[in-house]
Write a structure and sequence with these properties.
The chain has 16 helices and 14 strands. With 469 residues, the protein is mainly alpha-helical. Helix 3 crosses helix 4.
Length: 469
């Protein structure tokens, strides 16, 4: 295929309350999914640390409060993870990237450079109060700023502990820092912070959205060095964050180039080139021919005894409500699609459009998820249970991994994953969750859990998905 992407903001329908059998669907990294306040506590203590060049405003107060919180986290976590004792970062600097006369940080002019960073030679952490932090706060909430601070503080911990050096590849340092941010976020979600609180439903979803937004741009053939010297794809960054959230900070110390390569497997990281030498877009038109080829490909991947049919128009199904854009009807064993809706959601969009990544795989992964319901129906599995949503996401991951290599199709068309497709799939799982939904489109409440089930499929077989869920 060419690219899998995702857009907009739709509120997914949540599946019914859990029974004990399906309680995993209502957990996020092992914690119960909660809907409640997230962000700075109303009774949070005033920050104890100060920043050079601060304007004393609410943005700097928020960041400094987060610094205090992350330092409290590391004061207790550091001795459990590393030898020695924890030492706080020496200097904190606030700057305004929109001010051409702002201070230099670590010898660099940061005008028009919205960023948050840690500078090793000066043992300094800095943040942009002019654009980056207020924009992130506006879109993703106060708790996302605490996670951002935890990421940057993670770089200081790497060096002070000897986990990394200036020779360590950037991708390793960034993935470790994402993982440390996940471990800190878990600490907050468990109620250990007296400064921040976090719901594991919408609150955690918004932090994940911030993680996805901070991914690298899709790489082109002249950027191969960024495979090791970038920050990572959306899948890279979310995976590392989830490692820390579920397995604590000590797990983050295991991240190195080999571990990252194992997680990436053969998923494409760089866009290909056309015969004329131009870089491919990674996108293709989602039309009837494409969907027919997708169904052919899925038949080859899963080899069902009775492959589902394809209807190019939405159809009424007597026993179940349809799910948005694409549906599966058990009585007719048919996947029906709303082609105009799929075309709309496959239009390429990204953070410049103030949405999570969207493209052709936004639509194609969604149709794939409806196909996997036919596999479950053939085995007599329930199609409206909470576990159905996670099994569907897992099986979709299996299918997507199979698309990393060309598969010869009767139609003559080839659908192969392109760089950027996983960004779109992960974004879609967070935004609307249809890829991780039941036959009527109901999904589980935590985007964290939907993405986790999809990732499980990327590294598993169909049988393992059925066994797991």
């Amino acid at each position: 295929m060419v690219v899998l992407s995702l857009t907009g903001c739709a509120s997914p329908t949540t599946a019914p309350p859990p029974s004990d059998e399906f309680s995993t669907a209502f957990l996020a990294g092992g914690l119960p999914v909660t809907d409640g306040p997230s962000g700075l506590r109303s009774d949070a203590p005033m920050p104890q640390r100060s920043a050079e060049y601060s304007d004393g405003g609410s943005i700097d107060q928020l960041v400094l409060t987060a610094v205090d919180d992350v330092e409290q986290f590391w004061a207790s976590t550091y001795p459990q993870t590393f030898d020695g004792s924890f030492s706080p970062v020496e200097t904190l600097v606030s700057y305004d990237s929109e001010d051409p006369y702002g201070p230099e940080v670590c010898g660099a002019d940061l005008y028009d450079e919205p960023n948050a960073l840690y500078c090793l030679p000066a043992d300094t952490m800095a943040w942009d109060r002019g654009f980056l932090v207020p924009t992130g706060r506006g879109f993703f909430g106060d708790a996302s700023i605490a996670a951002l601070v935890a990421h940057e503080y993670g770089h200081a911990v790497q060096y002070s502990s000897g986990l990394t050096s200036i020779l360590t590849e950037t991708i390793v340092k960034e993935q470790q820092a994402d993982c440390f941010a996940g471990a800190y976020t878990r600490w907050v979600a468990e109620g250990n912070s007296n400064r921040f609180e976090l719901s594991t439903g919408d609150g955690l979803n918004r932090i994940l959205a911030g993680v996805i937004t901070s991914r690298d741009d899709v790489l082109t053939p002249d950027q191969t060095d960024m495979i090791e010297e970038g920050h990572g794809t959306a899948l890279d960054r979310v995976s590392a964050f989830q490692m820390g959230f579920t397995s604590a900070a000590v797990k983050c110390t295991e991240i190195d180039l080999d571990e990252i390569a194992q997680r990436r497997g053969d998923l494409p990281l760089i866009l290909g080139t056309e015969p004329d030498g131009n870089v491919q877009s990674g996108e293709m038109t989602v039309d009837q021919n494409t969907l027919v080829s997708l169904m052919e490909l899925l038949d080859k991947v899963f080899r069902p005894q009775s492959p589902p049919g394809l209807s190019m128009t939405p159809e009424d199904c007597p026993e179940t409500a349809s799910s948005p854009s694409a549906s599966y009807c058990p009585s007719t064993n048919t996947v029906s699609v709303d082609l105009s809706a799929l075309e709309q959601m496959s239009v390429q969009a990204d953070r410049d459009d103030y949405v999570l990544p969207q493209g052709d795989n936004t639509a194609l992964s969604l149709v794939t998820s409806r196909y996997t319901l036919s596999l479950q129906h053939a085995r007599g599995e329930p199609l409206n249970a909470p576990s159905t949503a996670l099994r569907t996401a897992c099986l979709t991951g299996v299918a997507q991994r199979s698309m990393a290599d060309p598969i010869e199709l009767p139609s003559g068309q080839t659908l192969v994953l392109a760089a950027g497709d996983m960004d779109e799939a992960v974004g879609g799982l967070l935004v609307n969750g249809i890829v991780a939904s039941t036959v009527d489109g109901s999904t589980v409440p935590a985007g964290f859990t939907r993405i986790e089930a999809f990732r499980e499929g990327l590294y598993s077989s169909s049988e393992q998905c059925f066994d797991r869920y």
